[in-house]
Each structure stands twice: as C-alpha cells, then as structure tokens.
Design goal:
Layout: H1 13-35, H2 45-57, H3 60-92, H4 94-108, H5 116-123, H6 127-152, H7 155-163, H8 168-212, H9 220-231, H10 234-262
Length: 268
Amino acid sequence: MSLQATRPLPPGTRGWLPLLVLAVLLVFWEAAVRLAAAQGLVPLPSGVVRSAVTLSSNGVIFEAMSGSLTRVLIGFVVGALIGVPLGLLIGVVPAMDRALRPVLDALRSIAPIAWIPMAILWLGVRGDAALFVVAYAAVFPFIVNTAQAARQIDRRLLSAARALGAGPWVVLRSVLLPGSMPTIFTGARIALAFAWASIVAAELAIGIKIQGQGRSVAGIGQLMVETLYVQRDVDALVFYMLAIGLVSLLIDSGLRWLQRRLLPWSPH
C-alpha cells in the first residue's frame, strides 16, 4: 500500500499561517503570565506593545538609539581606516604578515567586552570608553578579511601592472582594491555586527556606573540599565531588545543593498 503524498498548503494560507501561529503563542503567553500573577517579573505582550507606543511617541527610544548608532558609526569608520590599510599590507608583504600575526592573533582572541574595565579606567564613563570598545571590535574583521582578499589577488596581475610602469598607488587603486572589495565588504558586515553588539554590551556596563552617578542616559544600553534599576519595567526592556534586533537587521540589510549597488559583479 503506497503512502498518500502530503498535500501542499494552498497558496493563500502560506502568508497568514506563520502570523496565526505567532498570534496563538502570544495569546497563550499573555494568559499564562496573568494566571500565574507574574506581572512585573515576566513581560506581557500587551505591555510590550504599550511600552512601544509610549516610548516611540515621547522620542526616548530614538534619542538613545541615535547616541548608540553615532558611536557605532564612528567606531566602524575608525576600524576601517586602521584595518583595511593594515590588512592590505599584511596580505601583500609576507614579512609584515609574519611579524604582526602573533600580536594580532593574541589581541583578536581577547573579547571586546573584556576591555570595558580598562576603557572605563582610561577614558571615563562617557562616550569615549564605549567608542574604544566599538573600534576594537570592528578593526579585526577588517584586518582579517582584507588580508585574505589581498592574498587571493593573482600575483600575475600585480606583476603585469608593475611591468607596465604602474607605481604603488596605481597598483593599489587599479588592482588591489577592486579585487579585494567583495571580501572587504564581507568584513565590513561582520565588523558592523560586532560593533553593534559591542556598543550594547559596553553601554550596559558603563550604564551601571552612569546610573550610580546620576548622569543622563546617553545610549540604548544606558537606557536599559536605567529602566532596570530605576523603573523596573520588564515590558520596556523587551521592547528595547526587539528594537536592538530590528536595528541590527536594518544595518545588515543596508550593507547588502550597498554591496549590490557598488559591486554588482560580486557574489552576494
């Protein structure tokens, strides 16, 4: 007896079926928390929605995100300005690779958040400490991916360019950078993801210090710390977590779009 083939879902149900499952889960979640009388300790879906409306209307979430994104952008640019030239140098000059690899591997093995205490000690609890952590997190993906891209450049192309009289800057502009850009963009996506994760961690740690000194909120991490220790609002905390994930998704999607526009020949 042959088994009957499973019928595929009708085309009209494929769009709303995941939404229906999500809605059922949220209803059960809401009911379970209310029946267990765990409000205040466990977030409610309805409370998260209320917090989203309130914090979006008064602009608190946008102000905090703006501060965090500014630090991420500055740290990302600093990481690129250091990492890309250093990666090209390591990838092209074997002696530099042998000389710098042990130091870079040792530094790369240290998690960026492990530098938070030293950054606070050196730079204080203002934005400079978080900026240092973000730049540290962003620089190594640039170095590693750029060096790998430079190593993969066909050396015959470099030799041909030099044979035609091209100087170092011409070789860099016409051969090395165009051939390395797809891999550099991959490193940029990784660097930006690391930078965003690091700014949240750094601001959470620094936010404890700021909150203890009565200073104002300067980023999403500090806002989460203030919400936890002052307001005790778990619904708002969940909303901040969702906002952090959404911003991360938008950042990565923006880089993918930029890569498609600037490098149409590269694999995506």
